[in-house]
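Problem: given the chain below (65 residues), write out its structure.
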Amino acid sequence: MKRYRRPYNFATPHWMRNIQNVLRDCIIPLTIFQAIRTLLLPTFFDFILLVVFIYLTVRSHYNPL
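Solution.
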């Protein structure tokens, strides 16, 4: 007799996965906007923010949930 196997349960709750999916969809337009803003008015804070957005974009692209 086979034992009942539970389907794989994700490590993160459902509501957190929804938030991550929404943020993943928004990060590319935010990165493009920040890149244009950094080209027009470059400040140190804009540069740091652009680097963070690029990191998050690459991380979400190569590390899907």
